Amino acid sequence: MMSSSFWSMGGYARYVWPCFAFAGAVLAWNLWSARRHHAAARVRAARMLEMAAGDDS
Amino acid sequence: MWTWFYKLASPPYVYGAAAALAPWFLGAAALALGYGLIAGLAIAPPDYQQGEAFRMIYVHVPGALLSMTVYAVMAVASAVALIWRIKVGFAVAAAAAPIGASFTVLALVTGSLWGRPMWGTYWAWDPRLTSELILLFLYVGVMSLRSAFEDPARGDRAAALLATVGVINLPIIHFSVVWWNSLHQGATIVKLGAPSMDASMLWPLLSMWLGFMLFFAAVLCIRVQGEVLNRERQSTWVRMAVKS
Questions:
Q1: Under an 8 Å CB criterion, which residues of B touch A?
Q2: Domain that holds residue A32
Q3: Mean pLDDT of B172-182
Q4: Are the C-beta atoms of residues B118 and B173 closer than 8 Å to each other?
Q5: Predicted ipTM?
Q6: Helix or strand or coil: residue A42?
Q7: Model's pTM, two decimal places?
Q8: Total domain count for chain A?
C-alpha cells in the first residue's frame, strides 16, 4: 500500500492529482472520440452503399 | 523512394496502413506511458525548489510539446495537400486538428494548475501563455472554417490555407520565453546543448513524451481512417473496407 506522504504530494496534492486526472481524461477522450469518428464514418459509408444497391435493383 | 511517397497519396493504401499501425502505436504508447508514470510519480526525487509540485512536468511538458508537434503535422499535411493536390493531406489535417486542440487545452489547464502554487496565479497574460492560447484559437479557427463551407472541398482548402499561415505561431511560442520577459521558465529539453535536468528526472519525462507521441500517432491513424472513408464513400475500394 502506498504511503500517505505519496498521496499528499508534499502538500501539493490538490494541484498534482487534478493535473494527472485531467491528462488521463484528455487521453481517454481522444481514444473514444477517434474510435467513434471512425465507426460513424463506416456506418455512413455502409448506408450509402445500401442506398446505391437499392437504386440499382 | 518516390514509390513510397506516391503510395502515401493513395487513400486505400493510407487506410490500410493506418488500420495496421494503430494497435502497435497504442501498445507502445501504453508501455512508455506506464514506465513514465511510475518513474515520474514514485521514483524520481522531488525538486530542490518546487518539491513534489514539479511532478506536474510529466504531463504538462509532453502536452505542450504535442500541441505544437500536432500543429506542425497539420500544417505540413495542409501544405502538401495544397501544393501537390493530394487529397489524403486534407484528411490528415482534418484528423489532426481536434487532437491538437485537446493537447493545447491540456497544456493550458495543467500549466494553470502548476502556475497557482508556483506563481500565485492560475493565469497571467504572459507571452508563453498567450501564444499558447492563440494556438488553441488557431485550432478552433481551422476546424470552424472547414465546417463553415457547404462544399467540403472548399472548406478543406480554406482550412488548409489558415493552418499553413498559422504555423508562424510555432516559433513565437517556442522563443517567447527568450524574446520577452516571461514568468515561464526557459527551455529545459528542446534547446541547444544538454537538457538542464538530472537523469533521474529526465528519463521519465522523455518516456512520457515518447508515450504522448505514440498515442498521438495511434489516434491519428484511427481518425485518418474515418476521414478517408468520409471522403471516399463513392469509391469501389470502400465497399470492401466497410464489409470487412
A1: 26, 37, 41-42, 46, 51-53, 55-56, 58-60, 63, 98-99, 102-103, 105-106, 109-110, 113-114, 116-117, 215, 218-219, 222-223, 225-227, 229-230, 233-234, 238-239, 241-242
A2: 24-57
A3: 84
A4: no
A5: 0.91
A6: helix
A7: 0.92
A8: 1
